[in-house]
Every structure is written in structure tokens, then in C-alpha cells.
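Researcher: I'm preparing a figure for a lab meeting and need a structural model of a single chain. I don't have an experimental structure, so a prediction will have to do for now. The sequence is pasted below. Please return the structure as C-alpha cells so I can convert it later.
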Amino acid sequence: MAILEVKNIEKHFGKTEVLKNICFSLNQGEVLAIIGSSGSGKTTLLRCLNFLEIANSGSITVNGKTIFDENIKLNDKTIRKNRLHFGMVFQNFNLFPQYTAFENITLAPKLALKNGIEIGIKSVEEIEKNGDELLETVGLSEKRDFYPCQLSGGQQQRVAIARALAMRPDILCFDEPTSALDPELTGEVLKVIKELKGNDRTMIVVTHEMNFARGVADKVIFMADGIVEEIGTPSEVFGNPKSEKTKAFLAKSLENI
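Model: Understood. Here is the structure written out cell by cell.
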């Protein structure tokens, strides 16, 4: 059974159609790379999955349970619960500047525990142990008590990844995780994402890094003008694209590599 099924998702802002009939599925442990030009709808799709935006129609199913369709009434409590399925890593890190790396990672789980929200962690001690383990996972144990202003951009993004993992989501989503980084810092973030794949993490990565998409993803979606223009394995999409729009995009993108 697919861990994620997205069917016929539509999203518009006023009269502007941003997403049109988006459909795809993802199995446990798979990495999906979403590529496409700016304005193609990639980030809006992630935001709809994470309920930062609410789709106008369609359905989203996680682990066999439909968490969004036109018959489900959404309130603040339901939305917060649905978001627990998805961890979100933003392109600009969005760390809390007043908290250390460790505090950024453990804050949300502690709030969940305090408010009786079930994420599979039963105590503050377990949350803090998990926080230290996640810092080790992203290679930042020695930066435990550093504040964001004391960290490089790559280090901040690795803390952001650990923070998303701390809530134990079913699916980890990345919105262009390296776009705010200098080229020399991009590699350290992509290395962490590659290592997470080795631990059977299910991930969706919106990216402009074509080599990463080609080398790490199990599936690739190319979006254009709010639709899924092409979907397939990396060898299919990169090696034998069917769509003229895909061919044109890849020709322009790959010549810059």
C-alpha cells in the first residue's frame, strides 16, 4: 500500500489556477523529487500537502486514511493533526533565533507532550535523548548549545532537518532546501538528505539540483504551469523525456551543471 496518495488536487487563488488535477503516489522509503521552473506550482503543492494552504478539491490519503477531501470538514484541530504526517523543511531555515540548536529541535515535541498530542514520545527525557541523537544524525553534536546566528547556513539547515524529524513525521518534505545556501554549503545538506534515504525515510524534495534529483530520487515529477507534465523514474524523466516542455527545461537546466 502506498504511504501517500494524492488525487486530483486543485488549488486556485482567486481566478488564478495554481494547481490543476495533481495526481501521484509514494511508497514507504521512496524519495520523490519535484522539479520545474519557478512559478510552476511546486511549493504550493508542498504547502497543500502540509495544510499551510488548503486545496480547493481533490484528496490526500496517508497510510490508507484520507485526511483531505471535499467531504471532510477541516477545523484548526484537524489541520494541526493532519500536519503531523508531514515534516516541513523550508528554504530559509525558519529557526527560532532566541533558542539554541538543541532547543529548536526539542521545542515542538515538548509542546506536543504538554498538550497531549500523540507523536510516540512519552517523556521529556525521551525527547531530549532523541534531540541529541538527531543532532548526531545531522553531524552537529558539537553545536548543541549554539544559537542560529552562530551557525553557518548549511548548519542551520541541518538543524531545521533535525527539527522536522523530531516530530516523527510519516513523510519529510523539503522546499528547495539548498536555494538559500552558497554552493560550498549545498553539499553538506544534500549529504544529510542522502543519508536519510538510507534509513528508509519517505521524502518529497522540491529542488533545482538536477544531479541530486537524478542520482537520489526514486521518482521524479516535472511540473509546468500547475500540472504534472511528466512523472517517472530518474532514468525515464532525465534519459528519455516524453514531453516537449520537459525536454526544453532539462536542456536549459543541465547545460548549467
